[in-house]
Amino acid sequence: MADVSHGTVFKGAGVVGGIRYARAVWISSRPELPEAGAVIAEEVREHEQARFDTAAEIVADRLLARSEVASGAAAEVLKATAGMVNDRGWRKAVAKGVRQGHPAEYAVVAATDKFIVMFEKAGGIIAERTTDLRDIRDRVIAELRGEPEPGLPDVEGQVILFADDLSPADTAALDTDLFVGLVTELGGPTSHTAIIARQLNVPCIVAAGRTISTIESGTKVLIDGSLGTIVLDADEADALAQVEESIEQAARIAEWRGPAQTSDGHRVQLLANVQDGATSQTAADTEAEGIGLFRTELCFLSATEEPSVEEQAHIYSQVLEAFPESKVVVRTLDAGSDKPVPFTSMPDEMNPALGVRGLRIARENTGLMTRQLDAVAKAATDLGRGYEAPTWVMAPMVATADEAKWFAELCRERGLIAGAMVEVPAVALMADKIMPHLDFVSIGTNDLTQYAMAADRMSPELAYLTDPWQPAVLRLIKMTCDEGQRQDVPVGICGEAAADPLLAVVLTGFGVNSLSAASSALAAVGAQLAEVDLGTCRKAAEVALDSEGAAEARDAVRAILRAAADSR
Questions:
Q1: What is the residue-wise DSSP string for 73-141?
Q2: How confident is the model at residue 460 (pLDDT cuts 50, 70, 90)?
Q3: Of 79, 165, 249, 339, which residue is the least packed, with the fewest Cβ within 10 Å?
Q4: What average pLDDT score do residues 74-96 get?
């Protein structure tokens, strides 16, 4: 693909690949937030509460109506956002403000601010939901004032939508014939914006920073959703050629059918990341060969009491049923840090990302682990899964050989295939001691990158560090793959890196056995691997490892692939 000939370049985190060239347009402004103002009289407070109740019900009903005409992740996100409007805790906080004499509009602001602080303190995925909170706040305030609903602007022709952050309702409502690309100042790869953009297959860049606010509506921009670049003043002929090539590549991806292999027949298993039965059924309709990551904790984020073994087994069965004759990898509760599960009774910690999370919660509560493994084993047995449809189970946040041994013994007692996540750099460094206890390992590149680079993976300001292309991270992955080959232990990838077609070439060159990502991303990975041979993958791996930084590694691998394509 041609290089950008010239222009001012802004950089964010690319979450959905594709190249587009069009006018920038900024999302419509949000309502101006009210100040506290004078205390309202006692006799009108009941009426003020009724105004709020009516406005909240209208907003929730509107979101639910949109969810009914949406599908997949968009529908689920809209339902979840409507649920936030109806959340009893939030509504009670608003009611308290009204009882204290605040007008409904300000009571909404004060209650939302309270929950935003709580969510930001929790960090991670929970912190990313603050966008959703601000969105319901603004929609309710607009309804209270009788103002138009905030959101997408009216446009003519194709545009690239810019925003500080996009709400799930706005993202789900996008007309992709008009809005051909998305760029946000904030957000992250696991935000609702990114999730829905993947489903819509709209090139998307998040965490581009406040500097993009200098880009005015009407400015022609060239965006690359893989590289995360926004280019002003690009040569128009060159930009249009890149867009045409990107569209042709998208057509090849749409036609790709598995199984995944390089052009000379080297197989790489493509698996799906899922969170429940619905996402598993969606994955079953793609080229996914099985499930490489079932995030069990996402089933229980609102559960205040631990579900029984039977209740858990029912939930797990829904996932296993989607792939009755294929491998399914279940991750035990990755609770803590950015995914607080209420029934685990996690302690408040100064630095939860480095605290009691994942496998570590079972140190003081072994029953939590054994009951979950009992439920997984029950679900597998009830469905008659056996050798041809193995049920693999892996623990998150393993750090030592003793932890790996303990977990593996619990799994094997129940007839389950035992593995561990490689997220803590110590596991890669001590793989020769840890792997003998395990049947497989799966590299969680999101956390591995966070810990290797000492950078919060949810921080937009540190996106340049929390990039799996960082050579330090690649070296840890290579070390793990080398030890896996020596000990005949399969090594998979189940982080965001597995969804990057270009990086998939490097990972295949390292010797990774499987790649697991959102099911919507698998075709692009499979199509890319089909265009290269194993020798090219190994050359790409070598140059990436030898690079000084993430951008240099990407550029070097692109050069290798261009040279390979030119020689064919």
A1: HHHHHHHHHHHHHT-HHHHHHHHHHHHTT--HHHHHHHHHHHHHHHHHHH-HHHHHTHHHHHHHHHHHH
A2: low
A3: 79
A4: 87
pTM for the structure as a whole: 0.74
Q: Which residues are catalytic?
A: 192, 494
As a whole number of angstroms, the distance between CA 197 and CA 215 comes to 22
Tell me the domain boundaries of the chain: 8-28+151-252, 46-145, 256-532
Encoded tokens for 553: 């590694």
In whole angstroms, what is the distance from residue 381 CA to residue 365 CA? 25
Reply yes or no: is the peptide bond before residue 259 cis, omega within 30 of 0: yes
CATH architecture of 8-28+151-252: 3-Layer(bba) Sandwich (3.50)
Task: Name residue 225's amino acid.
Answer: G
User: Distance (Å, rounded) from C-alpha 268 to C-alpha 517?
Assistant: 13
Identify the CATH assignment for 256-532 out of 3.40.50.720, 3.40.50.1970, 3.20.20.60, 3.30.70.270.
Answer: 3.20.20.60
Detail the DSSP E strand segments found in 237-383: 269-274, 291-295, 328-331
